[in-house]
Amino acid sequence: MHEGIHISLSAERLGTFFGLPITNTLLSAWLVMAVLILTAIIVGRKPTLVPGKVQNFFEMIFEFVIGYMTDIFGDRKRALTFFPFIATIFLFIATSNLFDFMPFFGSIGIYEHGELVPLFHAVNTDLNVTLALAIISVITIEVAGIVVVGFWKYLGKFFTFRGHTIGERLLNFTVGLIEFVSEMSRFISFSFRLFGNIFAGEVLLAVVAYFMPYILPIPLMGFETFVGIVQAAVFAMLTLFFLKLAMAKPHGSH
After folding, report:
1. Which residue range forms the structural domain that includes residue 198?
2. What is the CA radius of gyration of the chain?
3. Which distant-in-sequence residues (6+ apart) come within 8 Å of 144 by Cβ?
4. Total structural domains in the chain?
5. Is there a contact between 206 and 7 (Cβ–Cβ < 8 Å)?
């Protein structure tokens, strides 16, 4: 068996299902989703008019988040509409990052060619996962903007020839193109920000655990836990703010 630091940029394949590859990060994502669904069923199974401690805790969090989203949108109905989406993004990313420190992550697996292939691996160290999250987020943002503002008005944010002179029209058209490129770059910024932070943390922990196994790993694990939650919050809040911007009417539309 080869010993040393094992760092894999891509997810390891465990097998196939009807010709589709099953990787250890995909298996980890299924585990995270199963835990979240089971928790939701247990917490929301028997709500009461007089809440207990657990129900009261979740209701306080719910009201806080809804209040914050209402302040952002300026509309409680809209906040309630997008709350499930924003909350799902945060819970999935945060839980995935917290699961990275479970003892069975990276330690249980199968041996292939003398090396251990772990059954579970950090979900957000797979660029495919973070890119999928980015695609879901960006498409939701764009569709929400089109539904609220209208297709042609929304398109007018990026492709416009408004202006009194040719110079003004060219300037507005150029600015609109820059805005469009910036809009499309969110696919990259969303996915690589999350992937880079989580993957870098995993590499740092692996190196520290190899060279100083009895000194630094525990403090760094606490720090990386904090970073994982912060990254989940950043992803969810950026999605929230971009939704707000997408649903704002273009300047001069009134």
Report:
1. 13-246
2. 22
3. 82, 243, 246, 247
4. 1
5. yes
